[in-house]
Specification:
By secondary structure, the chain is an alpha/beta fold. It contains three helices and eight strands, in the order ββββαβαβαββ. It has an eight-stranded mixed sheet with strand order 1-8-7-3-4-5-6-2. The termini are close together.
Length: about 140
């Protein structure tokens, strides 16, 4: 078990999903296909993998003010990550979660979890509670 700091704890109870711990920062704008949820940033180590339904651990983001729009489209299509674990808060990305909630869709909760602890996440499924507790077998 470990604990992350809630940034956007807009859910009650728990979310579950397989961990996808990225090994490099990701730009949602141009790095994630908004119609499929696949990483399309050619030089990214996890290029081709889907972020849909995952507990997505991001060691960093590569900023574009359009990243929130890509996340919002993933939320609209119900192919967003189940939860976001960010090494550092990213206000632009979190705007996508806020707008998704205002639209009546189900945005992923977001938490801060530093890179060192992201590296300790197990392969497989985890459960993330609203208070930031991360449970795994």
């Amino acid at each position: 078990m470990m604990r992350a700091e809630p940034l956007f704890p807009d859910h009650k109870g728990t979310v579950e999903g397989p961990v996808l711990a990225l090994t490099a920062p990701l730009s949602f704008w141009g790095g994630v296909d908004p119609s499929t949820g696949r990483i399309i940033q050619v030089r990214h180590p996890q290029c081709g993998q889907s972020i849909a339904g995952t507990v997505l651990a991001l060691p960093g983001t590569i900023g574009s003010s359009s990243s929130s729009a890509v996340l919002l489209e993933l939320i609209r299509l119900d192919i967003a990550p189940a939860a976001l674990l960010l090494a550092a808060p990213d206000a632009i990305l979190l705007i996508g979660c806020v707008v998704g909630r205002e639209m009546g869709w189900k945005p992923p909760p977001a938490f801060r979890l530093d890179e060192a602890r992201q590296a300790q996440l197990p392969a497989g499924r985890v459960t993330v509670l609203a208070d930031g507790e991360i449970r795994f077998p």
